[in-house]
Design goal:
Length: 371
């Protein structure tokens, strides 16, 4: 085993992945830790954003399969109970976006600008799209024989699920040369696919042919740093999206009419449960917002350098905050603990059956029991 992998296992065994501050007994336990790759030599601030997917089907182990994208250009299938790597395939770029399950198959988008359809049982790639876009950093959406995917060249593309061919695409020009790096993913509402663009607009397109259904201007009258680069989410009939500079918006999903606004900068993609949004901010805060009317329930004060999309259970919000993973009480916003393996956590965890699966900046995949 490579030296870095050996060290990572030793750190996990010695409890370096530990609570900072007080933690009530038995709230969280490390079930297993799997080093996936060696860090580059002299890595100072390594960054890993790959978000695992938990899936169960007739093609997976009975205990479930983790599909793990990572920056080393590998996509791995891992036994969720044991941490055993069952298969892998290689892409031409780093992998950030969470994969999507479709029956007994997977759809994986990569920063190499391509989309891959693969078998859950063995990872065999069935097709690679001829998609000509640039880097893909957000999860695709599969719906009625189509795969909808966005790329950082300000483009939304519809692909055929059957063979990966391009059906239609829509592209908007960048409003200025000053744009936030990233690209909103896709939300689905009925026959509409909804995504945001760097000019501050949120647009709903017809899933069938890409015709524009409505457009909402979220720029707030500003001209720079207005990118809608966090993925919108739909809660009942409300689309929630953010413009980097002007705030977090609630929009009527049928008409595109703005119904509420929470002002602020740097809101990211929310996690949603029971009508509540848990929204990260670039400043390091997590805020709890009611999706129906934008009422703010609580604000978890700044953790430090940044916050990214959390995972949410009925009891907890698990927020990657750069320096660590924060365990937050969902009802009150009180931080219960922070966990770290000395390299930090930026990737969104995946929650399944009381377990959080998270890929740390160290390149180690953790299975954490959450109680």
């Amino acid at each position: 085993m490579a030296l870095a992998a050996t060290v990572a296992l030793a750190l996990a065994a010695c409890g370096v992945f530990r609570p900072i501050g007080e933690l009530p007994p038995n709230r969280l336990s490390v079930d297993w830790a799997l080093p996936l790759y060696d860090l580059e030599p002299l890595a100072y601030h390594p960054l890993e954003l790959g978000q695992p997917l938990f899936v169960q089907s007739d093609a997976t182990p009975q205990t479930g399969l983790l599909v793990v994208p990572s920056k080393d250009r590998e996509v791995r299938g891992v036994n969720a109970a044991t941490g055993e790597v069952l298969w892998s395939f290689t892409t031409s770029g780093a992998n950030v976006a969470q994969p999507v399950a479709a029956g007994e198959e997977l759809v994986v988008a990569s920063t190499d600008g391509h989309v891959y359809r693969a078998n859950q049982r063995n990872g065999r790639v069935l097709w690679t799209s001829d998609y000509p876009g640039k880097s893909v950093v957000s999860a695709p959406v599969v719906h009625e024989g189509r795969v909808f995917v966005t790329s950082i060249d300000n483009r939304l593309t519809a692909l055929s699920y059957e063979d990966g061919s391009r059906l239609w695409d829509k592209k908007r020009p960048h409003a200025s040369e000053f744009t936030i790096t990233g690209q909103a993913g896709v939300a689905l509402f009925g026959d509409k696919v909804i995504t945001g663009f760097s000019d501050g607009h949120l647009v709903a397109f017809a899933a069938e042919d890409g015709a524009t259904m409505w457009t909402a201007d979220l720029s707030g009258g500003k001209t720079e740093f207005v990118d809608v680069d966090s993925t919108p989410v739909v809660v009942d009939n409300v689309v929630v999206a953010s413009s980097y500079k002007s705030g977090l918006y609630g929009i009527d999903a049928a008409t595109g009419t703005v119904t509420w606004l929470v002002k602020g900068e740097g809101y990211g993609t929310p996690a949603v449960i029971e009508g509540m949004l848990y929204v990260p901010q670039a400043s390091g805060r997590i805020i709890a917002v009611r999706a129906a009317d934008g009422a703010v329930r609580w604000v978890a004060k700044s953790f430090g350098e940044r916050a990214r999309t959390p995972a949410v259970s009925h009891k907890y919000v698990l927020a990657p905050i750069g320096e660590s993973l924060a365990l937050i009480d969902r009802g009150s916003g009180r931080t219960l603990a922070r966990y770290d393996d000395a390299r930090g956590v930026d990737a969104t965890p995946e929650l399944a059956y009381g377990t959080a699966f998270v890929l740390g900046n160290s390149g180690t995949l953790y299975s954490l029991g959450v109680y």
